[in-house]
Amino acid sequence: MNHYFRTLRNACSTATALFALTASVTPHAATPAEVSYVGDYRGGSVDTVSQLALLDDNTFCFALSGGALDMVIAGRWKSEGTGVRLQQVRHDQTLFPVFTRKASTLGTMVEFDFHGQTLSNARAPVFAVSVDDTPPTTLRPLFGKDHNTWSESYPLPALPAESVRYFYLGDVVEEAPGKPPVVKVVQYRLDGANSVRVGFDQLQAMPLMDQRAELKGDMLFLSGSRMGKRRVLSLEVEQAVRTGCILPALNPDSPRPALRKGQSMPLEPLKTFTVSVSAIAGKPFFEAKIK
After folding, report:
1. 6, 204, 202: which is closest to 88 by C-alpha?
2. Smallest Cα–Cα separation from 90: which of 115, 126, 62, 68?
3. Cα gap 27→251, rounded to integer Å
4. pTM for the full model?
5. d(CA 122, CA 205)
């Protein structure tokens, strides 16, 4: 199967289910200097596979797969000097996607289940709950510093619903070069649901793509590294990247897929704020297994 379709299926369809990304779209035809860049480029190494589609309306889709990372990003490109510049478009979303549902078997209890494979990409994730909207003074780490083997699921023992009206998820971030790290915290209110699934969006934690590309002969170099030879962009690939990658990122009216009966609902965060790393205290919720 074409790499675009594998990556778009695994990553972009999931992202579309989580979010309706928002940005304005002002497509225009490529200039004569840009036309030579329109095409499909494929590259990679022993550990990674990458593809880049530059479309004639100056939009692009970049897909990278390597290890646990399946990344699909979209944006716009334009002529710059002897090459072109690729700039990602991304609407800011929560670092911690949360899905909830009502489980009749839980009664008046609430369960939290943390998705280990995505949370393994977080720097130092923390968690706390509260009975009202006053943020807790301390945040407890989910995992220890020596946690390096990961399971799919990390469930907590069920908690009484009256003690979990609000919950908080955070990670250590560096907001600006040279400044001390802080904990970026997301606050959620739990209304009605009692089964909570938490993940981590690594792409939101990454800086926006802003790279220069240049053709040398028929070989494209991305930020100075060999990307791949220019290929004619087939109609099949163009349609796939438009509908699965570019439109969800650039179209403000991109709809969310309809939820099936019993399917978990995405929960919107109330607010995001930062606290000092000194707020992290206590033993990890999930200790590393000793072999």
Report:
1. 204
2. 62
3. 11
4. 0.67
5. 8
Q: Measured between alpha carbons, how far is 240 from 235 in angstroms, rounded to an integer?
A: 9
Strand partners, 73: 62
Distance CA 53, CA 111 (A): 42
The amino acid at residue 152 is E
CA 65 to chain centre: 14
41 within 8 A of 48, measured Cβ to Cβ: no
Closest CA to 101 of 193, 227, 239: 193
- The DSSP H or E segment spanning 3 is helix 3-7
What digits encode the pLDDT tens for the residues 130-153? 999 999 999 999 999 889 889 999
Distance, in Å, from the CA atom of 49 to the CA atom of 51, rounded to the nearest integer, reads 7
The Cα–Cα gap between 214 and 265 comes to 43
Share of the chain above pLDDT 70, in %: 84
> How far is residue 221's CA from residue 229's CA, in Å, rounded to a whole number?
9
Percent residues over pLDDT 90 in the chain: 62
Phi/psi class of residue 286: alpha, beta or left (left: φ > 0; alpha: ψ in -120 to 50)? beta
What was the pLDDT predicted at 253?
A: 56
Contact 236, 143 (CB under 8 A): no
Quick check: 225 and 52 in contact, CB under 8 A?
no
DSSP state of 291: -
pLDDT at site 252: 53
Of 77, 52, 75, nearest to 63 by C-alpha is: 52
Tens digits of residue pLDDT in 186-238: 999 998 899 999 999 888 878 889 999 999 999 999 999 999 999 999 999 99
